[in-house]
Amino acid sequence: MAKFSLRRLLIQDFSSEDQGLIGKLAPIVNNAFEQVANAFSKSLSVRDNMAGDELDLEVTAPINTSNPIYFKNATKSQVRFIVCGQATTLRGTAPTGTPFFTFENSGTEVKVTGITNLTDGSKYILRIYYFT
Description:
By secondary structure, the protein is an alpha+beta fold. The chain has helices at residues 19-40, 46-49; strands spanning 52-60, 69-72, 81-91, 101-106, 109-115, 123-131.
């Protein structure tokens, strides 16, 4: 957790020529930096601070255009990318590398048409994070 020492803009810290401008800018700048410092002094999480979500997908390889899988997009925007944070093997062979997703947005669902590095016939739980 980050610790910040925040110093506010004060009119009296500036020359009399600049005090008029500082008087107009200080409330805006001070408020903005207070909000940033407040956010960084608390625990930030991807789920709370980015447009996207996380979920667990149970899949049996292969996943391809003939055997796609779908998941509900909980956001109001189209998914831009998917990251696999964890792959748990339920049956078969462990993944040969980090799973990479090929997908398309389909209304409120995401259609996954490919996942690399999974062994055909093996079953996995993939913890994914998707971002919009």
